[in-house]
Write a structure and sequence with these properties.
This protein is mainly alpha-helical. The chain is about 65% helix and about 10% strand. Strands 1-3-2 form a three-stranded antiparallel β-sheet. A hairpin with a 2-residue loop joins β2 and β3. The longest helix has 28 residues. It is globular and about 55 Å long. The chain starts with 19 loop residues before the first helix and ends with a helix.
């Protein structure tokens, strides 16, 4: 091809057979993930100044999925039981979560957001959503929906 390169031609500096589209995807995802990690830290501090960034994801999961066993949470996040216990203890100490007996198994406990935890989480989540609305104000709603659909598709495939 003369004059313009095909977007599918391999990038000589990246190794044979690598598409420009996938290199661009990798770059953009790296930036997105770096910003998401930083944002999680900021949001965690907004929920509570002593909240660890990793624990914010627990609040997200408990708000969306409801009460869960610690073992279910550990499996969902791919961490060990000891790590999960430590994070849940910290959230409990901050008054953001509570444990209650599992009615299906009296030996097990369910973790749930407290009223305080839910209120703090929703306040931060709503503020974050407001930031997205402002940043994407010049996007068409169909573009926002398409981005959400594509990210959902990517996340679903990552779980397979």
């Amino acid at each position: 091809m003369h004059g313009s390169e095909s977007a599918r031609e391999p990038d000589a500096t990246a190794g044979a057979g690598v598409d420009h589209e996938f290199l661009a995807l990798e770059r953009e995802l790296a930036v997105f993930l770096r910003r998401a990690r930083a944002s999680s830290g900021e949001m965690a501090r907004e929920v509570h100044p002593e909240l660890e960034p990793a624990a914010y994801g627990l609040l997200v999961r408990l708000e969306s999925a409801g009460r869960q066993r610690a073992t279910e949470l550990a499996a969902y996040f791919g961490v060990g039981k000891a790590t999960m216990s430590r994070q849940l203890r910290a959230l409990e100490d901050l008054g953001l979560v509570a444990r209650e007996p599992d009615p299906a198994d009296g030996r097990a406990w369910l973790v749930r957001l407290t009223g305080e935890g839910l209120a703090r989480f929703r306040s931060v989540r709503d503020a974050r959503r407001g930031r997205y609305v402002r940043k994407l104000a010049d996007w068409d709603r169909a573009e926002v929906a398409e981005l959400a659909r594509l990210l959902h598709q990517l996340n679903t495939r990552a779980e397979e």
